[in-house]
Amino acid sequence: MLPGGRHAALPEGWLRSVVMTLAFGLLVAGGLADQGTIFPFLVIGVAALGLGTLYLLFPHGLHFAFGTSAGLAVYACLFAVMGRAAFPAAPDGARAVAFLLPVVAFLAAVWVRRRSLRLVAEAERPFDLGHLPRMARWLIPVWAVGAFALALPVNRLPVFDQGAALLGAMLVIAIVVAASVRGVVLLLTDMALITEELAQRAARMLVPVVAFLAMYAMLVILFACFYRIAQGLSMHALFHGPQGPVPLPFPDALYFSLVTQATVGYGDVTPHDDGIRLLASIQVVAGQVLLLFGFAEIMRTRRVLGAEAATKRPGPAGD
Predict the structure, then answer these.
(1) Is 317 within a domain?
(2) Contacts of 223 (CB under 8 A, 6+ apart)
(3) CA 201 to chain centre
(4) How far apart are CA 197 and CA 170, in angstroms?
(5) DSSP 8-state symbol, 155
(6) Residue 155: which of 92, 99, 88, 82 has the closest Cα?
(7) Same-domain status, 154 and 250
(8) Would you say 67 and 131 are in contact if contact means Cβ atoms under 8 Å apart?
(9) In this structure, what DSSP letter does residue 239 have?
(10) For residues 178 and 108, is the Cβ–Cβ distance under 8 A?
């Protein structure tokens, strides 16, 4: 609360950041959900705990909080994959404690050094390449622990020993993270700043992208109609699938048109007529020409926007 009984205003974009952070955490938790384990609930709980703690410490550090949610998602995915590969028989209790160790160590280190980290966590500057050496210093031992866990025959140990080895490995990572908390905060903040900058660039390209997608969709629909009409006028099946002739109703024609234009070619529906093959070839060429046109238009728009931004920049003092 500010002097005079006034409440501090919430920072701009706080609701968007909170919603995106929670939605991302729920999505990752759902993707990691394994029947009969508590791991997804751990991910949700840790995301909520971390989000609440960081917003409490750094109410204006929206980039840092969102970057932390992205970092937590990456960490959860790597933990799930590495844990199953190197410690397949580790008990669920040991997995839960091992997962929490680096997170708790990170939050505790942030709490202890909250005053010195405030300027970093609430930064709004663009990504700085000078941060890379500091990032590398703490990432090297973390990746080394993972490499040793995969290289050594830990997965052949008894259940209890695997659990102990997993706890030991994550304890080492927790110590590294706590000791290098400033580098971790820099990395997480820069991750969010890079994401926001890319989102702003994408928003500026919205008009040519939407125009390209509209033309792309029209081309898909146009050729789908051609395929459907050709099939309706033919006395025999023009398309075959793994089980034989395909009647090709319009949804199937639309699907075939899309995968043909995208040059994916799954092979579940294939043309069995020279005329249809020629038509499909024309669509592929038209799709590639449209792709080149769309790319050229997007690059032209980017140059125009860059030139407009350059003209709006203030000149040197005294001009």
Answers:
(1) no
(2) 257, 260, 261, 279, 283
(3) 17
(4) 33
(5) G
(6) 88
(7) no
(8) no
(9) E
(10) yes
Q: Distance of CA 244 to CAs 54, 237, 260, Å?
A: 60, 9, 19
Number of domains making up the chain: 2
Residue 3 counted as domain residue = no
Percent of the chain scored above 70 by pLDDT?
Answer: 64
Same-domain check for residues 200 and 228: no
The backbone torsions φ and ψ at residue 2, rounded to the nearest 5 degrees and listed phi first, read: -85, 165
For residue 75, name the pLDDT band (cuts at 50, 70, 90). confident
Of 52-66, 131-145, 202-216, the least confident: 52-66
C-alpha distances (whole Å) from 213 to each of 79, 99, 298 are: 38, 42, 12
Number of H helices, E strands in the chain: 11, 3
- Spell out the SS3 assignment of 113-154: CHHHHHHHHCCCCCCCHHHHHHHHHHHHHHHHHHHHHHHCCH
With a cut of 90, say whether residue 258 has pLDDT above it.
yes
- CA–CA dist 101, 177 (Å, integer): 10
